[in-house]
Amino acid sequence: xxxxxxxxxxxxxxxxxxxxxxxxxxxxxxxxxxxxxxxxxxxxxxxxxxxxxxxxxxxxxxxxxxxxxxxxxxxxxxxxxxxxxxxxxxxxxxxxxxxxxxxxxxxxxxxxxxxxxxxxxxxxxxxxxxxxxxxxxxxxxxxxxxxxxxxxxxxxxxxxxxxxxxxxxxxxxxxxxxxxxxxxxxxxxxxxxxxxxxxxxxxxxxxxxxxxxxxxxxxxxxxxxxxxxxxxxxxxxxxxxxxxxxxxxxxxxxxxxxxxxxxxxxxxxxxxxxxxxxxxxxxxxxxxxxxxxxxxxxxxxxxxxxxxxxxxxxxxxxxxxxxxxxxxxxxxxxxxxxxxxxxxxxxxxxxxxxxxxx
Length: 358
Prior knowledge:
By secondary structure, the protein is α/β, with parallel strands linked by helices. The chain folds into 2 domains: 13-148, no CATH class; 161-357. Helix content is 40%, strand content 13%. It contains 13 helices and 9 strands. Strands 1-5-4-3-2-6-7-8 form an 8-stranded mixed barrel. Strand 3 and strand 4 (54-58) form a beta hairpin. Helix 3 packs antiparallel against helix 12 (329-344), helix 7 (241-256) runs parallel beside helix 12 (329-344) and helix 10 (298-308) runs antiparallel to helix 11.
């Protein structure tokens, strides 16, 4: 009997990495150069390292961000079409003759208040010539990837920064999501009823955001956690709208504090991230963790940099860039920046500002 010929396995696709950041390098070292895909989307995937830390691989349109590897995924394809699946293992193929340091197995994730504590050593030992192997379907050449470095947070406050950002957002074409709330931040913080012109998503988020603002100003950790549970995962998409707003809020609060955060403020940030566990996507959880440390994607970060530089032209360009991200992700993050900048500013009282912002 003649046996049928065995079909050869399809060859793995190979793409180049465009950029990486120090948090990605630290994550893969902490993970002892291994991990597992936990979520696959069309143009992004999320990986959990051996120690539980998360990092992302994204297509170029997503841009640089903490714990992120940007790869040259062609516009006409996506990760799912390549055959990637949740559960695929991550392996590293090292260049011949080159050894790569492994971290001790007992090393754990950094404390929330020290996000960069692990970055320096990783930068000193870049992954040169290595190839990332994802399951059997994909190989990523890391050899030419540039290193993205996030901006350093400022040491001074910028009173009124929220007003300038809200005014820059006001004249733009409406987006789906929670961006319209930026125009009503005064009413929201005053605990007023939601404006009649909000869509269903905004009206649903309004009570939880009112509760969150009140709890935050009172440094009430249990009430903050309860309010965030009403927001986590709210909205469609890879990173739901309310999660993006929380990302902006936490990062802006970090940026706006000229002094070190108190223990009570750190507890608020921890309550935000812990309340989202099990309620949203893996990619969103990773963003929330880094936002609590003051770290943002490059386009959202550029908005804060422009605000602190008092550069109107740069602010306009930065808002343009962030506004275009995703279906509403960038605009939702900007709305969170407005809220965070209000909450961090002592004595800020934006009641009645909506008419002037418009």
